[in-house]
Amino acid sequence: MAAAREPRRDLAAMLVPLGRALTAAELPLLAEHGLSMWAYAVLLRLEAEPLRSQAALAESIGADKTRIIEVLTALESRGLISRTPDPADRRVRLLALTPEGSRVRDAAQSAIQSREDRLLAHYLPPTQRTPFLTALATLSALPPESLTDPDL
């Protein structure tokens, strides 16, 4: 006879409310840097590498490609990103982070992570913090299709 499993809540039932609460806690910090959540997502995504199109950017951050244009225009007008025509295809805009965009992104991220560090220190003992962050990083790096694999 199999041992009885200790009941626990489903991952999504735990993560979704946590994600919403963390997002709500980030909004005032982002506002201090003049950023919306979508603008911050753009700056974080462009940190890794420039992108070849607005559609590719929208897809990579899960945004609607028609609605992200307003965010990109605002970021470009503040000098945080550049959108330059691709010499190989003038219909395509190459998106890149500017030095000022990097500075604003770094400042916002520092404020957010400082708050997260205080939160983790308040609720998790030191021995649980690194394993929690490692597990979260591992799971969040999985491709979405692996999470819906019926053979798991």
TrEMBL record:
PROSITE patterns: HTH_MARR_2 (PS50995)
GO terms, molecular function: DNA binding
Presence of keyword DNA-binding: yes
Domain HTH marR-type: residue ranges: 8-141
InterPro entries: HTH_MarR-typ (IPR000835), MarR/SlyA-like (IPR039422), WH-like_DNA-bd_sf (IPR036388), WH_DNA-bd_sf (IPR036390)
Superkingdom assignment: Bacteria
Cleavable signal peptide: none
Keyword DNA-binding: yes
PANTHER family for this protein: HTH-TYPE TRANSCRIPTIONAL REPRESSOR YETL (PTHR33164:SF43), TRANSCRIPTIONAL REGULATOR, MARR FAMILY (PTHR33164)
Protein name stated in the entry: Winged helix DNA-binding protein
Organism this protein belongs to: Actinacidiphila epipremni
Source organism phylogeny: Bacteria, Bacillati, Actinomycetota, Actinomycetes, Kitasatosporales
